[in-house]
Amino acid sequence: MLRAIYRPARRAPWSPPSMPTSYRTALLCIACNIVSVGSLRVALHGAVAHGQPARHTLRSGAAYCCAGAAAEPDDISNENILRIVLSETTDEETNALVWKYLGYRYDEATGEYDASAVFPKWAKKYPQPPDLIGVTRTYERAVDEPVLRAVQALQKSVPTEHKDNLRTELKPLGWPGFKMAGLTPNMTRRAQVGQWLIYYRKALHGVSLEELVRRREARQAEEAAKLAADGTLPPTGTTKQGVL
After folding, report:
1. Using only C-alpha atoms, what is the Rg of the chain?
2. Cα separation of 93 and 223, whole Å?
3. Which among 30, 171, 191, 196 is most buried, taking Cβ atoms within 10 Å?
4. 33-63 pLDDT, tens per residue?
5. How many angstroms separate the CA atoms of 9 and 31, rounded?
6. More confident: 105 or 49
7. How far apart are CA 202 and CA 73, in angstroms?
8. Domain count along the chain
9. Is residue 6 included in any domain, yes or no?
10. Are 51 and 207 in contact (CB under 8 A)?
11. What 8-state DSSP symbol labels residue 43?
């Protein structure tokens, strides 16, 4: 089990931590702009998220930099996503991993996150990366409402055909799914971001922005035809709720 490196005071308003200085064990590869946080290695530049092939092998544990292209990033492999679901990563590590694939990058010069590579619709709503897990573990409405809304928005962006991907992908690794008894908000949110990461890996990673826009427009046409035919659309997973 990983030790939490950083834990904000309870009940305090949460804001995204600076990288890498807010993590005592963070190691930055200047050439690659990759930060090693605990057991997860996170690329900060964000460009690999949308249409540019990854030139790094990102793996948990040992340092791998400039190791060549990888068709699917190792840090969102089923094994690593299972670790997220089983709470074997810290809340901060989990947030950072999702931020990476949404496209956020940390600007050393300004000390702020740059959202220029973030999916357009998501960037408009969240110009700074939101807490998706609830790192304070404080569930009073005043503190937790922004976290809840952010992770719900992320989950709603997953198309219907990908909604059951978490169970499908993790079952071969021995994960039977969660039972309602004993389920906590933290566990639920870890499953939700895990679902989105699998969707990203399968449908978004390595695809150019132009192609993603083309697919979105084709899907919008299908949704319009369905709405005209029977007046219904799925409650979540539509193009209106997507990150693009």
Report:
1. 18
2. 36
3. 196
4. 334 344 444 443 333 334 333 333 333 222 2
5. 34
6. 105
7. 11
8. 1
9. no
10. yes
11. E
Query: Residue 149 is which amino acid?
Result: R
**pLDDT value at 73 more than 80:** yes
Token reading at 124: 């408009």
Work out the angle at residue 93's Cα, subtended by the Cα atoms of residues 92 and 97, and round it to the nearest 5 degrees: 115
Give the structural domain span for 104. 27-241
The answer to the question of residue 65 being in a domain is yes
Instruction: Tell me what the pLDDT averaged over the chain comes to.
Output: 78
Classify residue 180: in a domain, yes or no.
yes
Q: Report whether pLDDT(6) > 50.
A: no
CATH number at residue 237: 1.10.418.90
Q: How far is CA 80 from CA 131, 145, 148, 220, 237, in A?
A: 20, 28, 23, 33, 24
| Reduced DSSP (H G I as helix, E B as strand, rest coil) percent helix, strand, coil of the chain, to 5 | 45, 5, 50
Partnered with residue 106 across adjacent β-strands are: 113
Angle at 52 between CA 75 and CA 213, to 5 degrees: 105
Residue 21 within a domain: no
Residues 6+ apart with CB under 8 A from 49: 100, 101, 102, 103, 117, 204, 205
- CA–chain centroid gap for 73, Å, is 13
